[in-house]
Design brief:
One of its GO terms (biological process) is polysaccharide biosynthetic process. The chain is an alpha/beta fold and about 375 residues long. Helix content is about 40%, strand content about 15%. It folds into 2 domains: about 240 residues, Aspartate Aminotransferase, domain 2 (3-Layer(aba) Sandwich), CATH 3.40.640; about 120 residues, Aspartate Aminotransferase, domain 1 (Alpha-Beta Complex). A 7-stranded mixed beta sheet has the order 1-9-8-5-4-2-3, sandwiched between helices. Strands 7-6-10 form a 3-stranded antiparallel beta sheet, with no helix packed on it. Strands 11-12 form a two-stranded antiparallel sheet.
């Protein structure tokens, strides 16, 4: 039997995939065994079934599965013919994948600041970034809003700006799939959406995976060609330069089982996040969700005074409580990207957040006792 003292120091999982597996592991095992028995490891029937159910869940006409969220972004830019001399606008406070696909095609990422409350793309900064791009002789082509930490970006403001300048809107919902904006699921907003099924995502595979969602049938045809080496009538006719970016059948089988319980898990994440907010709002700046949005809470991220975060992380680690920092260095300051343009010489909100945010454990199976242990440790550490 575990003693109370041991329970208070036993390591906590940051994202507990084992707890989910304990719930549906037998169903996933059976689904994977069916694929193994069929030997249809590429483009098996589970892939088509998953695409159909994913599109229905998101409220989109079509879903095109692929090998990762990064490839989903790249495939869309390829399908739209993005090229050198064109600007693609990305928030600077995001994972590198959002921007790294842009130079693949010789285009220029232009970095945009984020909002103080939601940490998502700031529409006013987007307007400034577009003017910077034009002044540098770049043609504005695509904007990539990111649904950061699970919450959709401010599409009411971003979509009109995109229409004004003729921009394609590529929604990066790698962290936000399952969230809503004005009661519309992510995946049914903008020209197309890219998402990720990396295992730590709210809807995660047992390996890499991704998908594109759109209502554009012509775009779907191009995407399906691109993900199969640019094939035409068959794989030995190549009508465009493509890549190999398929979602394998085993991952589709896993995702079908996870999608079946996804709504319940979203509700659990919401309950846990709101409880965190109630318990921590007196010691930290807790997350804010826009009233027009719902979040899937991919991360639970608080904001602290400058200089406090790293000490808190060390104290929590000593008690077996993991933390993470998303992101210590904004994209416009990363060594590989700092030569690209941005909306200003500094992006003040991104740069402040990089010094002040820290994320606590969250997943759909975080029980109240474990959550209380985390909260108590945070409060003691911040009071010391």
């Amino acid at each position: 039997m575990t003693s109370p003292a041991t329970a208070q120091t036993a390591p906590i999982a940051f994202i507990d995939l084992a707890a989910q597996r304990a719930r549906i592991g037998s169903r996933i095992d059976e689904a994977v065994l069916r694929v193994l028995a069929s030997c249809r490891f590429i483009n098996g029937p589970e892939v088509t079934a998953f695409e159909e159910k994913l599109a229905a869940f998101a409220g989109a006409k079509y879903a095109v599965s692929c090998s990762s969220g990064t490839d989903a972004l790249a495939l869309l830019l390829m399908a739209w013919g993005v090229k050198p001399g064109e600007a693609v606008f990305c928030p600077a406070f995001t994972f590198c994948a959002t921007a790294e696909v842009v130079p693949y095609l010789g285009a220029t990422p232009v970095f945009v600041d984020v909002k103080e409350d939601t940490f998502n793309m700031d529409p006013e900064s987007l307007e400034l970034a577009i003017q910077v791009a034009i002044a540098q002789g770049l043609e504005p082509r695509v904007v990539i809003p990111v649904d950061l930490f699970g919450q959709p970006a401010d599409y009411d403001a971003i979509l009109p700006i995109a229409e004004k300048y003729g921009l394609k809107v590529l929604c990066d919902t790698a962290q936000g799939f399952g969230g809503t904006w004005n009661n519309k699921r992510t995946g049914s907003i903008g020209d197309a959406t890219a998402t990720s099924f990396f295992p730590a995502k709210p809807l995660g595979a047992y390996g890499d995976g991704g998908a594109i969602l759109t209502d554009d049938a012509e775009l779907v045809a191009v995407l399906k060609s691109l993900r199969e080496h640019g094939q035409g009538v068959d794989k030995y006719q190549n009508v465009r330069i493509g890549m190999t970016a398929r979602l394998d059948t085993v991952q589709a089988a896993v995702l079908l089982e996870k999608l079946a319980i996804f709504e319940e898990e979203i509700a659990a994440r919401e309950r846990i996040a709101l409880r965190y907010n109630a318990l921590l709002r007196d010691v930290a700046t807790v997350p804010v969700v826009d009233p027009r949005a719902s979040s899937v809470w991919a991360q639970y991220t608080i904001r602290l005074a400058p200089g406090v975060r790293d000490g808190l992380a060390d104290k929590l680690k000593a008690e077996g409580i993991p933390t993470a920092v998303y992101y210590r260095l904004p994209m416009h300051l990363q060594p590989a990207y700092r030569h690209y343009p941005a909306a200003g010489a500094i992006l003040p909100v991104c740069e402040a957040l990089a010094e002040e945010v820290i994320s606590l454990p969250i997943h759909a199976y975080l029980d109240e006792a474990t959550q209380d242990r985390i909260v108590d440790a945070v409060k003691r550490a911040l009071a010391a």
